[in-house]
């Protein structure tokens, strides 16, 4: 799938979006630490998420056959996000996610609701971790910034007409 000019425009906006969300070097370091905390729980969180998606029959594109592939991609996506390398490969990947969701006619309502259900599960991991309250607060703040950043990029690709 070719992303084209839409991805290039998003790449141009990345520094400004990162600055707006106050995703600085400290936040990026915290993002990597956050994945060290969340990563070991990712498989069970993602398994529960797709079980819920299937229960609610949110999209006919989410079939038994596609779920295993989607689980792998979902985990790879979160690992890439928290790795804090917001280069061309990451941006293109997020844009492809947005375009793919549009192509399968996934209502943005369900995209946002699904994303937030994953964020809540990640928040639970942070809340239950044996960490000082100030560290938990910093992790939750970083999580909010990363979720906003990632979701903004994907949703901005939703309504883009891809032109070669």
Number of DSSP strand runs: 0
The helix content, as a percent range, equals over 70%
| CATH architecture grouping | Orthogonal Bundle
Order of helices and strands: HHHHHH
Rg over C-alpha atoms, rounded to the nearest angstrom: 16 Å
Count of separate DSSP helical elements: 6
Arithmetic mean of pLDDT: 87
Percent of sequence in beta strands: under 5%
CATH class: Mainly Alpha
First-to-last CA distance: 10 Å
Instruction: Decide which structural class fits the backbone.
Output: mainly alpha
Keywords:
164 residues; mainly alpha; Globin-like; 6 helices; 79% helix; 0% strand
Would you mind describing this structure in some detail?
By secondary structure, the protein is an all-alpha fold. The chain is 79% helix and 0% strand. It contains six helices and no strands. It has helices at 5-20, 25-56, 64-82, 88-103, 108-128, 133-158. The longest helix has 32 residues, at 25-56. It is globular. The relative contact order is 0.19.
Topology:
Layout: H1 5-20, H2 25-56, H3 64-82, H4 88-103, H5 108-128, H6 133-158
Helix pairs in contact: 1-4, 1-6, 2-3, 2-5, 2-6, 4-6, 5-6
């Amino acid at each position: 799938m070719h992303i084209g000019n839409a991805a290039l425009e998003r790449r141009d906006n990345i520094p400004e979006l990162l600055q707006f969300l106050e995703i600085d070097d400290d936040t990026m370091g915290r993002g990597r630490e956050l994945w060290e905390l969340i990563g070991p729980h990712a498989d069970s969180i993602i398994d529960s998420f797709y079980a819920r998606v299937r229960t609610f029959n949110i999209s006919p594109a989410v079939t038994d056959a596609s779920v295993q592939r989607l689980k792998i991609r979902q985990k790879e996506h979160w690992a890439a996000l928290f790795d804090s390398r917001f280069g061309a490969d990451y941006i293109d990947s997020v844009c492809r996610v947005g375009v793919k969701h549009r192509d399968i006619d996934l209502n943005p309502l369900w995209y946002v609701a699904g994303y937030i259900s994953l964020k809540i599960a990640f928040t639970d991991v942070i809340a239950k971790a044996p960490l000082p309250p100030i560290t938990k607060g910093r992790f939750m703040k970083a999580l909010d910034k990363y979720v906003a950043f990632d979701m903004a990029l994907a949703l901005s690709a939703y309504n883009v007409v891809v032109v070669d």
